[in-house]
Amino acid sequence: MKSLILEGFMGCGKSSIAEQLSKELNCPLYDTDALIEKDENRSINEIFESSGEEYFRDLETKMLEKLMQQDGFCVISLGGGMPVREENRKLLRKLGTVVYIKAPAELLFKRLENEREKRPMLEGHELRQRIDELLRLREEAYLKAADFTMGLREEMTVKDAALCIRKACGI
Ligand code: S3P
Q1: What share of the chain has pLDDT > 90, as a percent?
Q2: Is the C-beta atom of 79 inside 6 A of ligand 1?
Q3: Residue 1 has pLDDT above 90, yes or no
Q4: Ligand 1 and 120: CB distance under 6 A
Q5: 147-159 pLDDT per residue, tens
Q6: Residue 84: which of 1, 10, 17, 18 has the closest Cα?
Q7: Average pLDDT rounded to a whole number, residues 10-37
Q8: Fewer CB in a 10 Å sphere around the end CB: N or C, the chain?
Q9: Is 40:111 a contact under the CB 8 Å cutoff?
Q10: Atom of ligand 1 nearest to the CA of 45
């Protein structure tokens, strides 16, 4: 396997599960949001506010192209909107095995209620409606990009989720 890539909606736990997997598998971890913030030297919120969503989406594509250059097995955690662009899905296919962490809307709602200020895509919307709307718009892209889908349940810990992914991928 080239790399292990986690995709899924905001709040599904991609970053923490990716961190756990990189510890267990003893390999580098790349979080596209964190890498973009570091390169730009500003937060995702600031990027959206001053440069707009399209600019951020271009940065995401460039980040995937950059990750293509690195050698060796790694775990990659994607921003929630990354698989929407077809161009990105093509790059993801070349980059490694993609796991979709699929969480129920109700669970996402509970988790995002206290974290929405860090997420410009949720700003100015009624939260539950916005989650449903974005899920509806994105589900097909998530499924198209994924090699495996892992159904996340509320009672699952980060370790449970990591184990489930390792089993599905045989690693
Ligand atoms: C986004 C998700 C965020 C971040 C940006 C846009 C989205 O990442 O990339 O705010 O469009 O779903 P997380 O999924 O890590 O919150």
Answers
A1: 95
A2: yes
A3: no
A4: yes
A5: 999 999 999 999 9
A6: 10
A7: 98
A8: N
A9: no
A10: 10
- Read off the pLDDT of residues 118-148 as tens digits, 9 standing for 90 and up: 899 999 999 999 999 999 999 999 999 999 9
Residue 27: per-residue pLDDT: 97
* SS3 at position 149: strand
DSSP state of 47: H
Instruction: Name the residue type at position 167.
Output: K
Determine how many CB atoms are found less than 10 A away from the CB of residue 44. 19
Which two structure tokens, joined as six digits, stand for 94? 């070349």
Q: Is 119 in the pocket of ligand 1 (CB under 6 A)?
A: yes
- Find the DSSP H helices in 30-155: 32-40, 44-51, 53-68, 86-95, 105-112, 127-145
Nearest Cα residue to atom 12 of ligand 1: 80
33 Cβ inside 6 Å of ligand 1: yes
Ligand 1 contact, 8 CB (< 6 A) = no
Coil, helix or strand at residue 118: helix
